[in-house]
Amino acid sequence: MVRQLQRKRTGLGNPIIKNLETIGYIGRFDNGHAVCVLKGGKYTRYAIINESFTEITPMENYFHILDFSEGMAAAKPDFNGKWGYIDGLGKEIISARYDEAAKFSGGLAAVKSNGKWGYIDRTGNQVIPFKFEEAGNFSENHSIVKYQGKYRIIDSAGNETMDLKYDRTEILDTGSALVSRKKEKGLINSSGYEVAPLEKYSDISTFFEGLARVNLNGKRGFIDQRGNLAIAPEYEEGNIFKEGFAAVKLNGKWGFIDRNGKEIIPFIYDDAAWFSEGLAAVNSGGKYGYVNMEGKEVIPFLFDDAGQFSTSSHSGETSARVEMNGKWFHIDKSGKCVKNCQNAPASHL
Fold it and tell me: Which distant-in-sequence residues (6+ apart) come within 8 Å of 218 by Cβ?
């Protein structure tokens, strides 16, 4: 049954959708198709949609599906099963036989079997042997891998082109890597070039939604995965990007910006967390409440502490853990108690 999905407006075109039954997440579109996570009922389910936000292939039998890339998506049919690959119509192209699987990039995908990573082509043939402890995605015919305890760069034939000599290396899904030496952090591309030199920033966070928080001369900004400065360092503090927004602090107050650095929610709060399930915990006058992506205060400022909303993969229930008068309980997105309600005041029952 084909189902028409209505986009939920977030001010960003953020990948969040809504239909009559469920709310879910849409991955990146690739060749006109995207993976959609639909929430509702007892379990989370997957579907493939087109750019008209129409569900074209239900994928109820799959436990997990990654975003499409180069026309294919890594997919896991069973909870304790193996990974394979499907095309944009949900047809299995490479059978589920790998312990882990990454996206296709440059015609190759990193997959894991018997504790080691290697690379396959689009037909499932092994191109580079399974011998790596870690393996990144290819970019410009190069990839960063970990072999015999050391990080190296290889070409698309599997030939080693460079040893990386950093204290720590964190491979990113773009094929680049965060690196550090002593107290300095930087970013290298798949060829080993430092696109964000180690001496430039005093701190670089892990990337979230394609951007990483950096510290330059005591101010926070954000760089993209090519090392370009995406948002100028002008904030006193900053959180990571989640659901298209980041909480940042300016002139002693917290607000929210989008990926272009545009102010979306005013700088009026004493504290702010990141968005989750469309809501963010914020503090005003010493109490926490929740705002939505339009900046509307949807749950009053009554709590001494407040966590992020999350959805249980088992029950399908969305809730957040909050504290009042030294006691913790869980609320839903309307502010009503749904768990540990013996700790909640009567106003939340």
Answer: none
